Each structure stands twice: as C-alpha cells, then as structure tokens.
C-alpha cells in the first residue's frame, strides 16, 4: 500500500471519528450534560482539541477549557495524557524546606532516556510571579507548588505528546491583548474619462470586374513550337523541283485490255 492510500485511509478515519463526536455532542446537549457556561460551539471546540490529544469526549469536555483565547488543559489532565501515551516509565516527588523556603521537586523518567528529568518550584518562585495573591494559592499552597513543578517537568520531557499546551492556572496569567480593528477605508469611485469621438471619413472604393474566386480557370492547351532551322525554311519557300522522268504515253492498243479469246 503506497503513501497516498495511507493518507486517504487516515483522512477517512478522522471523518468517521468527527461524525461520531458530533453524534455524542448532540446526546450530551439534549441530556443537559454540557459543562456550566459552555455553549455548543465551545463544547465542539473542546472535543475537536481532545481528538488531537487522544482524549475521550467526556475527558475533553471536562479537561479542556478556553482561557484568554488559548485552549488549555486541566492540571490533572496533563499526567493522564502522558500515562495514556505509554512513554512514562517512572515518576516521583520530593519536598524541600519549610515555610517560606518550601519547594517541590518533581521528577520523571521517559522511556528511551538514560537519566530522569526534574523541575523544582518554590515559594520564592510563586512570589516573583505574583501567584500568592490568589485565594487558590493561599489556601492550597502545597498542591499548587506540586502542580506547577509537575506541569513544567512533563511539558519539557514530553513535548511531542502535549504539543506545547498550557494548564488552566498558567493560562490565567496571560493577558489578553485586544485586537485593534483596522480602520475602514472607503473605496474611491474610479473616474470615467470619455475619449473624444473620432470623425469617420469614408474612403472611395474602386470597383473592379473580377471573376469570382470559385470560378474554374480556363485551361488553354498550347503546344510549344519547336524552333525551325532557317535553312529548312529557305528550302520550303523555293519552287518545287521539276520531274525529270516524263510519264510515257500509252497507245490505244496498249490501253485496251488483252483478250485471249479474240480471233
């Protein structure tokens, strides 16, 4: 099977998946199971992104959100996607310090890599980012430190799986930049310029008697005259030569027929 047939098969499978997702979306909508504040168009966008991430419809509806114009993943959806990929070999967490010196170290090992990857996120990092002013960070400090360290480590280790997707907490820090509408420019009507009329002067037409083009041509058979030798022409103009032998006059007896029975 060549590459073109493989591509056609993939496209056909994607079409079938999208049709199935549409049918499921209609069922969830009619059953009132869409997330709060999520309209039908946004739900369809979440499910479309979920197909690319390998998520099931309900996982996509509850684990994906549009924050400041960016599709984002729920914090707990990120490790579930990594685990479903089968590339995560091992993982672990370590807490360092206490109080204002508290920090979370998360590490993971990817299949095919010799050494594990890690990331540390501390209270000092949260202060610099201005995160401690939020109620969620003040009330759930350890959980938020763990989420940040895990998200950073997994996204750096598995970029081909997450596709540079951010979690909801990260995307909330993005400032939505207003899009300035381009000024409307009214098109100027094109000016029509009329050319002066040119005087038409009739030229005299000469009428010629010409044979019709389709008339058959008259064929004249002219025999080519051979050149005449002047000496031969001079002989033809001379008088005819006299006859040298005179005819002999016959006698009446000779003229009469010979009869054998004549007495």
Description:
This protein is 40% helix and 13% strand. It has 263 residues and is an alpha+beta fold. The strands form two sheets. It has a three-stranded mixed beta sheet with strand order 1-2-6. Strands 3-4-5 form a three-stranded antiparallel beta sheet. The mean pLDDT is 77.
Summarize, please:
This protein has 263 residues and is an alpha+beta fold. It is built from eleven helices and six strands.
Structural class: alpha+beta
**Major sheet description:** 3 strands, mixed
Number of strands: 6
Mean of pLDDT: 77
Please report the distance between the alpha carbons of the first and last residues. Answer: 134 Å
Task: Give descriptors for this structure.
263 residues; alpha+beta; 3-stranded mixed sheet; 11 helices; 40% helix; elongated
Summarize the topology.
Blueprint: H1 3-30, H2 40-53, H3 57-63, E1 64-67, E2 70-73, H4 77-85, E3 88-96, E4 103-110, E5 117-122, H5 123-128, H6 135-139, H7 141-157, H8 159-162, E6 166-167, H9 168-171, H10 230-237, H11 252-255
Parallel strand pairs: 2-6
Antiparallel strand pairs: 1-2, 3-4, 4-5
Helix pairs in contact: 1-2, 2-3
